[in-house]
Amino acid sequence: MQANPHIKTCLIIGDSVTHSLSPAMHNAAYKALGIDSQYVFLARQIKKEELEKAIQTDLRAKDIHAFACTIPHKENIVKYLDDMDGTAKEIGAANTVINTKGNLKGYNTDWKGAINSLLKHTSLKNKNVAILGSGGTARAIIYGLSKEGCKVNLFSRNNQTATALAEQFRCHTYSWEKREEAASSDIIINTTPIGRDDIATPLPGEYINENHIVFDVNYKKGNTPLLNLAQSKNAITIDGLEMLLQQGMLQFELYTGLKAPEDAMRKALSI
User: Fold this and answer.
1) In this structure, are 61 and 101 located in the same domain?
2) Core-most of 2, 111, 151, 194, by most CB within 10 Å?
């Protein structure tokens, strides 16, 4: 990619980013505000083992204004940053990085994006919430839920990260094989990649009913298998596009200092 000194380049980095709608969403926002001659948003595939080299040789470059992190970089990026805001430090993950003359500062907009998505459907105080997964997105959402006064139960395939999260945020952790316990929750949130690129579901249908709110941070055309299953049970569903929008609006404001044009960004995501 050739640098254009007149354009501030923003990226989403991850593995993979081929499915990402972030470029379409942000570029639509730039166009709506008439600043598309100043900003461009692109996707860049960076594998986990390539992240350190990319930071050293590319992502600190003067033409890179900012970048968003998705799987698997939200936690790994932390050790390469020069600074983080207080929330990102507390969460221990960053999904948004601003480059100021080679100095990289991390932020986290995931937590607020998730909470805003949930608050469109329910109050959160004293709700019982089951979280599936224990990666960077789970960390951010658990942080937000704890601030809202929720009781969080964590189900993970990674005992080490789950235990660390449970200690930090005072939530309860269960083995992945005990996912039937999620059925007693008010809200079920999938933060694993299960169902993003396949037809698997992280939770069997018998554990979902019409009283649940089921939130999948993934998104795909025609809904994820988990959300299709939840809809068949008449549960309230929230897909990853709403979270993408909500956190993306906050990112946009960090990138540009301007109020995000919600309608244009929502239209770009077709939601």
Assistant:
1) yes
2) 111
